[in-house]
Amino acid sequence: MRYGLKEWAEGYVTITVRGKRFERFLNMVVREGLRVWNIRRVGAETCRCDILIADYFRLRPFLRETGCRSHVEQREGLPFWMVRLRRRSGLGIGAVLFFVGLYMLSSFVWTVEVTGTKQMSPQKVLQAAEQIGIKEGAWKVKLKEPLLLRKELMTLLPEASWIGVTIQGTKVTLNVVEKDDPVKPIVLGPRHLVAKKRAVIHTILPEAGRSQVKVNQFVEKGQVLVSGIIGSEERQRAVAARGTVKGEVWYTSDASVPLKQTQYRLTGEKLGQQYLIVGPYAVQVWPWNKQSFALYESKEARFMPSYAGYTSPVGWKQVEQSEVVESQVELSTEEAVAYAKRFAREDILRKAGKDAVIREEKVLHATTENGKVYVSIHFSVIEDIAVEQPIVGIPQSPEPDSTP
Amino acid sequence: MRRWSRRLRHLAGGVLDLPQDVVLEVPRITMIGHLQMYIENHRGVLHFSEKELRLLLTNGQLIVSGEQLVIRAILPEEVLLEGRIGGVKFV
User: Fold this and answer.
1) Which residues of A touch B44 (CB under 8 A)?
2) Nearest CA among A109, A116, A120, A110 for reference residue A144
3) pLDDT digits (tens, 9 = 90+) for A28-44
């Protein structure tokens, strides 16, 4: 029955009608087909109602006939808006100019970004891009299709195997994928593999060269394991010996463990503190009173807003303190020995290298003295004992096929 | 003649199962709680104030009493009334 939007678009006025025969006036107006709404009585002889602008000008004869008088209270709707807008035309022009400006400014390229360059300098890519029109301040409409641009860029930059051109808003991203040179094999000079420790050979797997030792043979430090000199007496040639040689090495490790130990343990109680940082000073903001635990671990997080290399002097710091409780623990001798073994094992493995395996361990003796347990442990470890040693002094023999 | 016409109408209403307000010239009133009232088939406004709306019908009058009454819309044969409606009375 009512069309709020249509009324607003056509414009309407709120009028008060003063007169004794308002009902008669209303009936006449309605029968004539004028649209009147929101009728309410505001006084003994006055009523207020809304009416369309077009209908308002047709009211006069009815007002005269019933002896009523009308007075416009409020004007609303699009036509009145337009009038107001015309009065303040600067606002409208400004709004239009704003959108035009936004559209125009967004139709230019503002930034060109190069990603993915490794050997090539981004400057070079940018120069090539400038040749085909991709530069800061270029009009986007004049740029060709990204696919065409890509082709042209790739002809200009033969070093790249692929270049992606993406235009996103006012930003052009050139994604460069460079050609990878095939990995050159490392040329190895002639060398031996020698023992780096006194050991008993456990396994020997020569890949290049001639093995000089056998399994279960005892070798001294510096003894040649895999020789880099191959061939017979007359026809010799030096090569880079390769292979894995594992040997059994013996270690003795001494460790001492105190029987009384202090342990620290988190209780789970936490306290948060907020600080405001101004320059070099930190002011505690929350909580108001200074409180902390007797023993605690603290974690700190700082928030300093920074932009383009400039850090603001004002920031925020959060400190979280976690309560720690100290407790004394008395170890038994067995526990202390187990402790010592663990430490010794870690120590040995660190010495022996990462792929070493402990084959055997034996506690030689354990004594308790002055509240400490002294343990001496023997380890037998299987580890890589081969180390390269370049062959010098021996002149390199000519290639076998070149000799007669 | 009028009596004939009325009898014919009654008959049509009974036989054809037509709604009464279509056949007889009586108002059709739709109310939504005490908040809104929609009256069709009136013959004009006799009196309107915040407390009372008096409408002319073909036979008699309709008196709607209430508080803060507002005529939201009005057409030659329809009225949409809003406010706190207290009572409806046929006179």
Assistant:
1) 27
2) A109
3) 999 998 989 999 999 88
